[in-house]
Amino acid sequence: MKGGLYFNTDKPDDTMIKLTDPSKIHSLGWRHKVELDEGIKRVYEWYLNAK
Questions:
Q1: In sequence order, what are the residues at sequence separation of 6 or more whose Cβ sits closer than 8 angstroms to the Cβ of residue 13?
Q2: From CA 47, how far away is CA 39, in angstroms rounded?
Q3: Would you list the DSSP string of 35-46?
Q4: pLDDT 10s per residue in the chain (51 long)?
């Protein structure tokens, strides 16, 4: 297979860092009950068991 890769270095190559700030939703009285790493772990375990 022949071909080439060409990169346009004039354009960004990734999404800029997007930080989350929960202060707006906290000001409405909502608070999370599960930390992000624990939530990811739970969803992953649920997914494995759902197959």
A1: 7
A2: 12
A3: -HHHHHHHHHHH
A4: 688 888 888 887 777 777 788 888 899 999 989 998 999 999 999 999 997
pTM summary value: 0.48
**Locate tokens 């270095």: which residue?**
9
* Distance, CA of 32 to CA of 24 (rounded, Å): 13
Residues 6+ apart with CB under 8 A from 22: 32
Residue 32 is given by DSSP the state -
CA distances for 3 relative to 6, 9, 13, angstroms: 10, 19, 21
Which residue type occupies 41? K
Give 31's Cβ-side CA count (13 Å radius). Answer: 2
